[in-house]
Each structure stands twice: as structure tokens, then as C-alpha cells.
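Consider the following assembly input.
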Amino acid sequence: MISIFLCCSPRMASGMQEKQYTPSLLSFFVYNPSFGSREGEEEKKILFYHPSEVEKNEKIRNVGLCEAIVQFTRTFCPTKPAKSLHTQKNRQFFFEAEDSFWIVMVVRNPMVEKPNKDGRPPTIEYQEEEILDTVYGAVLRECYSMYKLFNGTFGRAMEAGGVELLMQKLDKFFYRYLQTLHLQSCDLLDVFGGIAFFPLDKMTYLKIQSFVNRVEESLSLIKYTAFLYNDQLIWSGLEQDDMRILYKYLTTSLFPRHSEPELAGRDSPLRPEVAGNLLHYGRFLTGPANLKDPEAKFRFPRIFVNTEDSYEELHLIVYKAMSAAVCFMISASVELTREFCEQLDGLVGPQLTLLASDICEQYNVNRRISGPDKEPQFKFIYFNHMNLAEKSTIHMRKTASVSLTSVHPDLMKILGDINCDFARVDEDEEIIVKAMTDYWVVGKKSDQRELYVILNQKNANLIEVNDGERAMDCFTTLKLSALQGVMTASV
Amino acid sequence: MSEEHYYLELCENPVQFENASSVNNVFFDEANKQVFAVRSGGATGVVVKGPEDKSSVAFRMDDKGEVKCIKFSIGNKILAVQRTPKSVDFINFIPDYPHLEFSQECKMKNASILGFCWTNWNEIVFITDQGIEFYQVLPDKRSLKLLKSQSINVNWYMYCPETAVILLSTTFQGNVLQPFAFKSGTMSKMSKFEIELPVVPKPAKLNLSERDIAVANMEGSCKKTNVLKLNTTGKFALNVVDNLVVVHHQSTQTSIIFDIKLREPDCALNVHQPVLPPRSIHPYRIPLTGPSAVPSQPPVPCELYSSSWSVFQPDIIISASEGYQWYLQVKLPPTVNLLQDKGKLIDFLLRRRDCKMVILSVCSQMLNGEDKGSLPVVATVFDKLNQVFKEYLEAEQTYTVAMESGPSRGSTARERPVRTQAVIDQSDMYTHVLSSFTEKKDVSHKFIIAVLMEYIRSLNQVQITVQHYLYELVIKTLVHHSLFYMLHQFLQYHVLSDSKPLACLLLSLEGTYPAAHQLSLDMLKRLSTANDEIVEVLLSKQQVLGALRFIRSVGGNDNISARKFLDAALQTADQMLFYTIFRFFEQRNLRLRGSPSFNPGEHCEEHVVYFKQVFGEQALMKQATV
């Protein structure tokens, strides 16, 4: 089916001194209704509350409200209680992370402050339709996934140390994590939570396989390995869901933290160290910054994977040489020593350095073949639900602080809307939207894949864009040219 | 000592002859590999035994004095017997030719004949201490014709029958060797060469004897720079077996082998170390035969390295005192445990004749059990095998191309490349090594997958197309351990190349791994020869519109069966879908035939009836009127 919409931005340009407020986090809390079911013990239900300085009774009131809404909506559909509550000023998102454990996120709607003449207080206009349930619902679920990655499930914490331990863990984790949430720049990519795969030829890929297998053989402690290049995934020994969240952590938190000092010229990765006649550039991104340091600590972050079945706790060693990064995961029951790290450094450093330059060379060859980087006539986001592969030419490089998009937020909102439409039906669909300012947005869903294209053609008219063949054409051209990289990997 | 200890053995069926004694003289002719047992100067019989029974002859000749040398010409046509230092006697063995002996004296005065060699069925060379004389024998005329002669001082000589080259030892010390080559009536002098003597004796004397030299034919060019490090002293004898130089050392009763082609990495000069530690030849027992033999009597052990042994090229050992002629053989299985370095072992085995099964057993061994090799070792072995495999494929390819382009001028007729046992292909590897290895319960699946990937990598490295059954093995192993995400990633990077069988295999996995459906369809799409299959798959999933859209995108919509699509649409019980599909075909009919109605041949009557039932007669498309 092909649907066409005309979309008008509600944001009309008018007054000069208007002040725009982006969506922001109002509160975030975790509760379990079964913990304080008796009258007067309601506070016990609350396991975490941000901002912590909120007065106790208000916390109880807010939690109670959420509880009531969820209970109430359950009467209509017992399996699918309400996921969000829309109000004029804010929007609340509910998520039952584990049995009876609820996480709630309250987001203040974006708003425009319009100054009034005569010293009257400015008028505030809330734009309650500007934020999407799908986007922030996904953000909320990701909060839990990230917590679980580093702390395990709520249930396990309860078993290990009761409510106290769980509250401690929640406090420790979310206190810092919530500061890194940038709700103003959440968009469709958060809904997908995808993984960018690095396009690679078969032979180089097999070499990487061979490298991973050899390292795992000689360092038999290693249980899982993941291999990334240029912040894009090449190989994951972890299962898809675990990799998805680990990938998120690596690319939005760990790598940017380490690349920024590199870019600034500090902490140069160049190590004038000779290991087996080969200068190598390998270094640990987690654990010891400098192996030679006698004071070095051999402690690595711990992560939890396969929480559904085998429930494994692992050390996360991230080791990098040039643009190639490898994650080695080792059972947390093993204590990692200086000797082990030196052995790993000596074994992996030189090989990884070689591989990284191999990949780089291959990458440059491919780029030369596909021609110089031209400014494409369109921008796109591609996502495949089957393997979580995503590719976006809309988003710039992600940093720790913010993810930048190269298009107007209005267009991003349209993409999000199309995605919601796609989610409603199971069948293949195509939607074409004429946005303001000469932009056309084409969304296409085919089997498990979704593609969103933003065209900016002044002279393009509805008939041209609507032409089925042309839209298909656009899709195939994309496959052939812009998507070539992704398609090489058949993602 | 276990059977695994010895890597050299004497053949099981030696040539037997009457042992040398005061009345029986034994001779060996290297050219025809014949043993002559001459009793009483031939009067009581001459028994000739060759490698095959048909070359064995028995006859009698008159005793005209002690026989010094006796040889048949090629094909047992003429017998030459030397009894005096001045002449050689001949007897015709050609049927219907006079059998009477005739004789030929050497031409050079005061020369004495050192020996003679047949270079053809009727051409013979006399080697005297003063030179060589090349004759043609005319059996019908019972005379010889001198073809060519050359004067040169000769200490001793050596004949290589395969190349018909005679080496003459000249000069006072005997270390300058002059080769002559013979070919159908012509004699050509080749450039002489000198053997370096380790110590120049004073006063000078004959220092190099024929015992020190062995001429052998070996595969490839054998450069003079090859030096064999013996690391010991004493009396040596040489054999060449299966392109290996075997050096027998009498005093230690052991033999060592050298592989001239095996490169020593840290040596500019080709100085060779023994490939394997010295070992004795496998003990040999002589079965007692004849009237004195009692069945229960155990065979007698044979004395190895005995002083009565004579060693001939390439692989012959004769014990004159016991009356046996053996061929020396190399046993490959024991070498497997003697060479620790697997890469070197494979290099060594790849150059041997009967190597295939041994190599395959090495592969099995390195994947299983305690002696398991590490992945880099496994990779090295695979790379070596595939390199040989690739070279063979390339030679075959070049040959095929040359054959197809027809015989071109000037180029010599190409020979089809020989497939030696060293060519180990994917099916060998699959049948003898990999399929049983992947079934092993005690091997971790991680190692199994790593090995399979290593083999695939190795094949890819030399651009050999990987066979489908190897991919199937990978997929089976991954599926067996529910490693679907790994499988997905392999497919994503095209490690498992596209093929219809692979796509079908994936399709069959859909039940356990839903994503396999997409992977399979993508693969079929990439193959671009599987459009029918794609339509079938989509229709079976009730994706009727998807199937139609797909077939339209590849331009096949005019040829598809309307009935098939209408049936599929009917099955979905989605009336709007049925309407859409029906309308599509009405439009197609109109476009192709000028009428929206279906042809009887399309068998769509029931669909038309259904359509009318649901949407009414008037919903049918009207015939366009003018």
C-alpha cells in the first residue's frame, strides 16, 4: 500500500523573542508495588527516585498515581496495561522491567515561551504532540537494559542482598546514567537500537575470524569476543540482544570518552614499545591504562549477559589498536592478574595492529572503487529487524555528549511518525510525505526492513515522487550506491 | 621396537637366486636390473632373474674361462660376456638368428677393458683404461661396427641407464668426472666437472672411487650445491627411494634420509640435515624354503647391513651370499611421529608418492585427541595442502584452455597435468577428516567451528571455490549448538557463499530460526536465477502481493499463472486481497489480449464464480468499448 500525506509543521515562525524549550527529564523512578502494600508503608515501594530531593510525600503520591493508572488500564487489557500517559505539560512512560518492578520516566513536553507586551508574564505553549511514545518508550527500556548489563537483574540483586542492595545498585547506577540521557536528541535511531556493521570483504572477514579463534584458543579464559572497527561491529560472539546493549555502551560512552582525549592530542595511543620486533599500538580501554605502571590496577568493568538463561557475569576487557577494538569477555569468577594482561597485550597487540592496517587498506580500496564521497541527493536511515543492522546518513558522529543530526527535527519527527504507522500493520508498506520547505520523505517497509529517505528536490512534485516505479527506483539505487557498504555485508 | 619405529624396509617379495659360492658367480646388471647366477662358467647353467618374471631366463653356455662381466642388451636380444681383459663375446638371443658366439677385441692397443654398457638393444660401449669405444652390433652378420671412439685416461666408470650417460673418472686423483651421453648411434661429450676432495692427499693418489659416487635420477634439478650433512664417518652406501636420498651407514647399522627439496631455512647453501633421526632398516626374516624347511620352523632373521651387501641405484640392495635382491622401500606412517614440526612433516609427505592417506591421517590426528594441534598449526597444514591443490587446478585450467584453443604453432604438445596423491581436494578432506571430526563428542564446538572456518579461509586465500557440503557442515554444527546468531553473521559477510541448495537449507531452518527466512530470500534474490523459487516461497507464506510485486520488479508478470496467484489469494481468506489480485489479472488480460476475461486454458472459472459471488457480476471489468 502506498499512502501519501501532506504534513504541515505546527511550528510557525512568528515572534522574534520566542524561546524554545526542548523535552527534558522531569523525574525517573523505580518501584515495586508489592513492597509496601500495607497502609502507611508506601515509601517502601520506592526503590529509586530522581530527583532525590523531592519531598517524600510527593514521591509517594507520584508513585501511587502511576500504580493506579497501570491498575486501572489493566482492567481493559490485562496483558497490556498503559505504557504512557499524555498530559499537557508532560508525558509519563511506564515500563514493567521485571515482574512487579516498574520503571517510570516523566518527560516534560517541549514548549515555546512567548513574551507578552506590557510586562505581562510570557505565555507558555506546550507542544504535547511533538514527542513520540515509541522513541521515549525505547529510551526507557534502554535505561533498564543498560542497568542490567552492568548490574544484572533486579531479582538477582534482591536474592543476593535484599532491597538494600538493590537500592544501592540503582542509586549508584542511575545517579550517573541519568545525567548522560539527552532526551532532546532522541529520535528514530533510539527506537531501532540498531547496530552499525562494518562493510568488509570475505577474505578480510575470514582473517578476523581466524584471529578471534586463535586468541580464544591461546587464552582459553576468554569466553566471548566482539570485534569492532571504526565503531562498527564486525563480529560478535555474544548473542544479539546482549550485543545490542553492549554496542550502545561502547559507541555512545566508552569509545567517545577515549577518542576525545586522542583528538585533543593528549594520551597519545602511539606506544614506542617493541614487542616481538613489532611496534604495536594496542592498549587497554578498560582496566589498566599503562601496563608498565607498578601501581596499575587490573580491574575491569563487569557485565551481565544471557540473563534469561545461563546468567553470566563477565569481566569486560576492551582492547584497541588504531581503529580496531576488541572486547574480550572472561568469567567474573576468575581473577585477572598482571601476568594475564601482559600475556594478552603481547599476543593481541601485534596481531591486532596488523589486522587494523589490513582492514584500513581494504576499506580505502573499496572507497576508491565506489568513487569519491559525493554529497548524495538524499539522506536515509535503514534498519533491518532481523539482524538489527542500521545505517544512517542523517546522523553525524556520535559523541559522549550529544548525537547530532543533519536534518531539521521536524523531519526527524516525520520519520518517527512513519515508523509508528509501519508498526501498526504487518504488511509491507510505503508512505510518502511532503514536508515543508521542499522536502519529501519516503518510508518503505519490506518484510523486516525499513528504509526512510529524505529528498530535497525543489522541483520534485507529487507525481514524480509518487510514481511507484520511481520510488522503487530510489530504493534500488540506494541499495546499489549509498547502501553499497551495508549491502556488501548483506545486512 | 614397535612397528612404528622403522621407516625403511626391504620389499616383501625379493628376487631370489642361487647364492654366490666357489662354483657360482653372481652378477648384477644395473641397466636391466637383472641378476645373473653363472654356475661353473655357464656350463652347468646361467640363471637370469629380473624384476618381472618375464625378464627371467635360464640357459647354458660353454665354459670358456671365468666370466668377468655378463649383461643382456635391452630386451634380452643379445648377451655380452667378458672373459678376458681384451675382448667381449656375444651370443644372439633373437630367435632364428645364429646362436654361435662371436667376439670383439678392443681397438686400442695395450688397453684393457674395464667393462661395457649396453646403450640400446644393439649398441654397446666398451670402457677401457685408455678410452671408450662405441659399437653397433650386427647380430645377423655376427660382427660389430665401430661407431665412434675417444681416447682418455680412465680410472673407473659409472653408467646411468635411465639417461644413457657414462661418467668417466679421469686425472691422477680420479676426481675429475667426464660424462658422455649416448643416443641412437650418436655419442656426445658433455662438460666435465670436478668433485671437491675434502683432503688433498700427499703424495697424490687415486682418491675418489666409484664407491663414493652414485648417479641417480631425481625429480627436479639436483644442484651440485646440495650438501648432505652426514655428521658421522665410516663406510656409506646410497639409495634413492621416492625422491629421497637414503644413506646407509654400515658401522652403526643405520640409515638416514635426506630430502633434497626440503629447504633449510637458515642456510644459503643447500646444506641438508637428515630429515629424520637415523634408524635401522626394518628387521627382515628369511623364510626357509626347499626340502630342509619344516613348516613350524620360524624364519631366520636376516643380517642387515652385512658386508656381502651390494647397493645399486636407485633402490636395489643385493645380498650375494644369501641370494636375495630386494627393493628398498620407505614407509610413510612411522615418519608421522618422528617429525614433530607438522608444517615440515606435511612438506615432506607432499613430495612422497603414496602420501594421500598418510596426510589425511595427519590431519585427523592434529584435530583429535591428545596430540591436537593448535589453530595456527592447523592453518599452516591447510594452507600447504591447498597450495598444492591450487597449483594442480591451475595447471589443469591452463591445459584445458590450451586444448580448447587448439594446437598452436610452435608450442609443444601439452601434457595433461598428472594428479598426484599430493593433490588433496575438498572431498578428500570432507570424507576422511572433517565429517567424522564434526561428529566427535569430546571436541568443543568452538574448536570444530574454528577449524572449519580455518579450512574455508585457507581455500578462499588461494581462490578455490568452496564446495557446498563444507558450508552445510558449518551450518549443521552451528544449528546443532543453536548458534544462530553466529550463522547469521557468517551469512551477512558472505562467508558462506550463495547457492540454491544453501538457500533451501536456510529455508528449512525457518522453524527454529525465523530470521533464516529473510536470509534465504535475500540469497535467492542475489542469485537472480531463482525467481520461480522466490515466488513459491512468498506464496507459501501467503505473501501474495509481495510475490506479485517481486515478479513485476523482475519483469516476469506476463508469464505467471493467474490461477496460482488467485488460489493463493483465495487461501488467505482476505477478500480485498482477492479483489486486488483478480483485478490485476483482468488488467493483464486486457493489455495482452484486449479483453479482461480469462482464457479457458487458464482454468480460472471457479475464481470468476467466486468473484461474482462476493463482489457481484457488475464488479467484473467491462470490455472496453469503442
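Chain A has eleven helices and 24 strands. Ask yourself how this observation constrains the way the partners meet.
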